[in-house]
Amino acid sequence: MYGRLQVVKKYVHYYFTAASGKGHGIHSPFIYDFVTNVLCDRRQFYPYEAIESLREDLLKDKTLLDIEDFGAGSAIRSTKQRSIASIARNAAKNKKLCRLLFRMVHYYQPQTIVELGTSLGISSAYMASANQAANVITIEGASSVAAAAKRNHEILQLNNIQGITGKFEDKLPLILQQVEKLDLAFVDGNHRLQPTKNYFEQLLTKATPQSILVFDDIHWSKEMEEAWRIIQQHDRVTASIDLFFLGIILFRPEFRSKQQFTIRF
Ligand SMILES: C[S@@+](CC[C@H](N)C(=O)[O-])C[C@H]1O[C@@H](n2cnc3c(N)ncnc32)[C@H](O)[C@@H]1O
Fold first, then answer.
1. Which CATH number do you get for residue 162?
2. Mean pLDDT for the chain?
């Protein structure tokens, strides 16, 4: 993991070299449409309030959970206690990124969504509430955290989320066997080179030209930058969008030669 100063330096470089977040100078119709209708959509959608109110409650919740630490990889390194408040503060994606995921689901209407890394269920709640007809399958290794996410989804009355408890390594292949195709995936856990490459390769088996893969924290560490670079260059990938905290991978045929966009967000 990079130090804070290094990330700030990288962010400053990104900010000043990225294309305008208003779409100026972007010639690809798909990317221009993404920027104007998804990235810049400032509307307040009605599910936002309930999810953020739940997040507020979680941030105050001192309940301790025994959790297996999956952070550094697939092997459980240790079990420790963490409060729900601390998990909500450190693991859940912030409002801005969650709302972007919401808008992507709202705009592109993916039917089958797979998330790697449920945590307390905030980002999955955003995606599920953006399209009640979508099926959101989300995987979490820490069983007590997965149980808390299930409760949170019940509070929000979301019936289109399938929470799967187990390691990504064990559960992802089984899930992919069961789905016909994958419309959207959000990879938000185990940010290391080899696992990220493996998840990508597995997700590819069910990707279609319309699929969208979203990777979290692509500039978090040398390993993640390497993983992002390898994924961007994969033969089947036709375009990528670097939003600094998230990276988006596309397979759409309209990008005749591979294109890499860096857009301010
Ligand atoms: C950053 S959090 C996910 C946050 C969530 N997407 C949100 O924004 O609300 C990542 C989660 O992935 C889980 N995780 C990490 N590596 C894993 C693995 N190999 N298998 C299963 N779960 C894993 C961790 O336990 C953690 O809860």
1. 3.40.50.150
2. 93
Distance 35 CA to ligand 1 centre (A): 28
Domain that holds residue 37: 4-57+92-262
Gap between the terminal Cα atoms of the chain: 22
Could you report the per-residue pLDDT of 193-241, keeping only the tens digit for each?
Answer: 999 999 999 999 999 999 999 999 999 899 999 999 999 999 999 999 9
Residue 123: CB within 6 Å of ligand 1?
yes
112, 181 contact by CB (below 8 A): yes
User: Given the CA of residue 67, which atom of ligand 1 is nearest to it?
Assistant: 25
Sign of CA dihedral 76, 201, 147, 156: positive
- Which atom from ligand 1 is nearest to the alpha carbon of 195? 19
Closest CA to 252 of 213, 225, 196: 213
Span of 43-47, 50-54, 115-119, 253-257 with lowest mean pLDDT: 253-257
Tens-digit pLDDT profile for residues 79-106: 799 999 999 999 999 999 999 999 999 9
Could you tell me the distance, in angstroms and rounded to a whole number, from the CA of residue 140 to the centre of ligand 1?
6
Rg, C-alpha atoms of the chain: 18
| Number of domain units in the chain | 1
The verdict on residue 77 lying in a domain is: no
Instruction: Assess whether the C-beta atom of 163 lies below 6 angstroms from ligand 1.
Output: no
Residue 65 Cβ < 6 Å to ligand 1: no
- Ligand 1 centroid distance, CA of 28 (Å): 34
